[in-house]
Design goal:
By secondary structure, the protein is an alpha+beta fold. Helix content is 26%, strand content 34%. α2 runs antiparallel to α3. The radius of gyration is 46 Å and the shape is elongated.
Amino acid sequence: MLNFHPPTRPKIWRSATVVLVLALALVACGKGPPKRLVAPLEVTLLTIEPADVPVSAEYVAQTQSSQLVNIQARVSGFLDKRIYTEGAVVKAGQVLFQMDPKPFQVQVDAASAVVQRNQAALAVATATLKRTKPLVQQNALSQKDLDDAQGQFEQTSAAVLQAQADLESARLNLSYATISSPVNGVSSFAEITDGSYLSPQNNQLTTVAVLTPIWVNFSLSENQMQRLEKETKSGRLVLPKDRNMTVEVDSSDGSRYPYTGKITFANPSYNMQTGTFLLRVTLDNPEGQLRPNQYVRVRLLGGVRPNATLVPQRAIQQGAKGHFVWVIDKAGKAVLRPVTVGEWQDENWFINEGLEAGEQVVIDGAQRLFQGAEVRVVPPAAQPLVAPVAGS
């Protein structure tokens, strides 16, 4: 009789069973696998040190001549010629146009002749009056003769005065035939050609725009004005006395204009179409570097933010609940801190609320941080050296 025995299990199966039982026992005891160690994250820190920070504000502006003079003919007549060069800078008293002076000279000569005739008549009337007075006193002539002599004297005296006024008027008209610039400035094109007849309906010749001082106009929106007033009242912004701020000007190519100016006019009302508030800066422009209607940038200086906190823009992040930064606590761990941001200042951001003096804020390496992360402080990364250009 044959007996069959079950096959014997290999040792490897017995070993696997033992490991499985041990693992289940560890799980039953509440012990999981060992945690993986995380190396401290490298960050760069900034210690908060509030200070009084000078601030500035930039706006797009446009230049304007402080005085735009219309050059017009004051008398009627023919225009002989234009003497100035169109678009050139002219001086006060420089002749721009010359009208035909001959008709006006004739009027002067005629008025002068009338003056001489009336002066001769006045001389006769004066002599007659002198002879009449003693004869009337001697009763050789009547009182009527004296009244007639006195009347003739007064009439000729008035005629002389009238003739002298007419002569002065004729001389003025003659002087108006030579048309000069009353101011220093840059001239415009000539609107009347040589040989044209000038009349009250056709007397605009050109314009001269004064270059110094020159005006620079810019506008603030209603929101900007309200924010400025709010920050001033809250003490976050301190302006100079009487708000007499210094104004710098940059040309369109970014170059700094060598002269500074002051705000000399503020429109008392808002522009209904644009909702803006016009401000005007008066600026010296002796070399004529700035021309009217040129676009520039103005920078207002003189404001100060007292006891202000500045943080680089790269350190500030924004989440669903607003802006925040990472702060390192005394244990050397990262803590998320909500902050209230203000205006920009170059590459920094003003922090209105959320940070205190002495706290350390992460400015580099914040993208990898999480709540409670351990950090290792490293100095700021050095700027890479620029290799020299071959052949230089």
